[in-house]
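FORM 7B: Structural annotation worksheet

SECTION A. Query
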Amino acid sequence: MENKDFKFVKADITDRKVVSEIFGTESHMDRSIEKPSVFWLTNVIGTQAFLTAYRK
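SECTION B. Predicted structure
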């Protein structure tokens, strides 16, 4: 699949380091102050979407 908006990662879901890198959060504090909604969307809604899919 060729798409600049997506990246496929083949990894072991039990590898905490890899999972942490793949699902890392936004961490640039200066940008989070300028545009808090972007960070909220990624960190909160993104996590919720992942956990909802996981439960299914």
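SECTION C. Observations
Helices lie at 16-22, 29-34, 36-55. The two ends are 24 Å apart (CA to CA).

SECTION D. Sign-off
Analyst initials: ____
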